[in-house]
Amino acid sequence: MKGLVYHGKEDIRYQIVDDPKIEEPRDIIVRATACGICGSDLHVFHGEMTEIGSGLGLARTFCVGHEAVGEVVETGKSVSRLKIGDTVMLSGFVSCGYCVPCLRGNSKMCESGGWNVYGFGTGLGGCQAELIRVPGADYNAASIPEGISVEQAVLLTDNLPTAYCAVQNACISAGRSVAVIGLGPIGLMVVELAMQMGASVVYAIDLVPERRQRAENLGAVPVNEADIIGFVTEATKGKMIDCAIEAVGSDKTMRLALDLVGIDGNVSILGVNNNMGFTIPRQLFVNNVTIRGNFATEIPRYWKDLVNLLQQKKIAPEQFITSRRPLSEGLEAYKAFNSDKSNTLKTILMP
């Protein structure tokens, strides 16, 4: 088969690699029909694996990517819910799926060998390839539900559940004010979800004017001020924000999120950052602020809620897909996603 293979910093090659094989009875093999490039894939593209997780090292070569949908072409003997010919969406985050924590949706507490993510050189192949081995397939893959498009299904493999988890962690509900820092694909999905959940106001913060405009089109208030803290202080009459979501991953934006939140507020951090070069202001302890971080989302945990929202057409995250390319143009797609912040949001690749 062919896939996109990491060879070093900014060196992604479309080349022939070995076909994956069934290794365990609960595996399936999927022929990909569409896959996505995620913001976290750029850390691999930049050769910055330590930004994803302490202690993880880049293998010399491996297929990249962790978002895909496709057709089941082979099944292990213990697979019961899926069959050859089914069109499925994959969870970018995988675990055993049969221990008690996994069955409760707490995949990070997996008791059977822990969890993993495709495409980071950690022993699980990447999804930006023609064929993908899916372990624990009855749990880590699901038939695409009725009324869900292929492109929506790609978003369900990581980006949309990650945005939804961030919204849940921020405790967004009707009447609460929200600030979203970083308006990439996931940040914009957070804006859309926050509006759907009845936020009284959503302040959309990003350096790129085109991204602020997209957020404004969703009903958010774009913030383009040199003094963001001062602007929000005045706009809220000093009460500040109830729910702040950081979707960038830099120390500067994390400090901003912490400075924006008010009494009994919630800060949800989903940006990837191992540096942690910031401090928590003392006032947050005085104000009873809750801070939650989530750098790896337990995808299947949120599928039911999100499929319901999509089927009822309450959200339309596919609007943030701005580029569609053949898998053979993977390197060009990565370069565009890396450099063209004005026009490129979500990219879909077709093997």
Relative strand content: 25-35%
Overall average pLDDT: 93
The total count of strands amounts to 18
Q: Characterize the quaternary organization of these chains.
A: single chain
Summarize the biggest pleated sheet: 7 strands, mixed
- Summing up helix and strand content along with how strands pair, one would put the structural category as alpha/beta
The appropriate CATH architecture of the largest domain is Alpha-Beta Complex
Helix content: 25-40%
Which superfamily, in CATH terms, is the homologous superfamily of the largest domain?
Answer: Medium-chain alcohol dehydrogenases, catalytic domain
CATH class of the largest domain equals Alpha Beta
Number of helices: 12
* Cα Rg: 20 Å
- How would you sum up the global shape? globular
Q: Kindly, what is the distance between the CA atoms of the first and last residues, rounded to a whole number of angstroms? A: 10 Å
What is the CATH third-level topology name of the largest domain? Quinone Oxidoreductase, Chain A, domain 1
List segments where confidence is low: pLDDT < 50 over at least 5 consecutive residues. 50-55
Element-level helix/strand string: EEEHEEEEHEEHEHHEHEHEHEHEHEHEHE
Number of domains: 2
